[in-house]
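Hi U.,

Before I forget, here's the chain from the pilot set. I'm dumping it here mostly so it's searchable later in email.
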Amino acid sequence: MEQQLPFEVPCIVNGREIRTGKLAKQPIPSDHARHLCSYHEADSDTVATAIEGALAAKAQWESMPWNDRAAIFLRAAELVSGKYRYKLMAATMLGQGKNAWQAEIDAAAELSDFFRFGVKYVEELYSQQPPKNTAGSWNRVEYRPLEGFVLAVSPFNFTAIGGNLPGAPALVGNVVVWKPSPAATYSNYLVYRILTEAGVPPGVIQFVPGPPPEVVAQCINHPDFAALHFTGSTFVFKKLWKDIAVNVDKYKGYPRIVGETGGKNFHLVHRSAEIRNAVLQSVRGAFEYQGQKCSALSRLYVSSSIWEGGFRNQFLSEIAAIKVGPPQDFRNFMGPVIGRPAFDKILGYIQKAKDAGGEILIGGTGDDSQGYFIQPTVILTKDPRSVTVQEEIFGPVVTVYVYEDDQFEDLLQLIDNTSVYALTGSIFAADRSALITATSKLRHAAGNVYYNEKCTGAVVGQQPFGGSRASGTNDKAGSVSLFYRFVSARSIKENFVGLEDFQYPSNLV
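Structure:
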């Protein structure tokens, strides 16, 4: 793939390639002097054509028999896991900075899982029918696609999410305008091409890369806007929610808003925890994909006896062994962060921690001479409400707070109210009562909770993913729950036996 750089990516509307001439570049974060692709940014005319074309394609797509829509997505899964597997992985490695392992579990495994399990879950959805029928009648429920179009706004950090955000609504018969992240344009373009090859008709999914504020604003200002499927920053999601609310009188219905945003995810290590496992799980949870997962570990609470009993030394020793560099070198566990703004923001937070009295135990530096590389960083704080404990950083930085063993239950309240987020969390303990207590007290602190396992790596079909509070609407991607959000149920009762009189039996007494 590197020998073919750079690629050119058009907008694709109604099955036609549109080259607006307004070009932007997707840099390679490990080598920012080069770029993976140039892409044509959608202008207002392109977006308008995309919306109208999607609406025009709607009737035929939603009336297509379910087994045929299912077959299209099952074929797409085969193309992802087979024919295009390594091309998708290469695009994800170069463009998004993932190592080979992370690219594999994302662009190949999770994306194909989304499509395959999606078919299974939609079958389950459609099978939810009234259990009873009175004599002489029959009842059924039709799960209609939404009236209008869905806007999918996907993030840079998961190619699989890029496919699932437009794919899930389309699977149940919706039409979608898809605005990919600028930093994932090429891998998402490949996903679009795969869906087309699998048989998604022209117009059903419209691929419109471009400046996010302009593209998104034009879509949510349209009267046929029916739903937002979003993954990205909390700030942007809240703004879009407000903008949609302001526009509510324009719409034909009340738009569905489905979003997954940030996290300030925790590991809680109890005094009964097995040290070695807690150490290794914390290293992976904090530093795989450079901490650029919504679920990544960023606050680590360790009991004092465990910290001094080997956790600290083992943790720092393992982190010191992490190799950082370009993902093409398979020895590197960590690659670059996604770009200049992320690089500057992450180092800025490290400086804030230093200024506030935090101790940098390891890392704390970055090198942007060729790529945007930041060393895995551990901050030790005595202030459990310090800035790097409360605010999302989205990088390879974890802050440690050591608590006294007998303060475990008091600590649970602190963990619960420290952050506005509630996405993922892990509890490490061999003592079952500690797991029960922590799970109960932290009931609303995380949408995905793990016992003696890192807080990242939710698997489709095993751990439905999503959180609440500022982390999103918790509609659980990777489960049947998500699909309910993109259908509008219609109850149908059919009568087989006509009335013989309008009066009630009681009227005849």
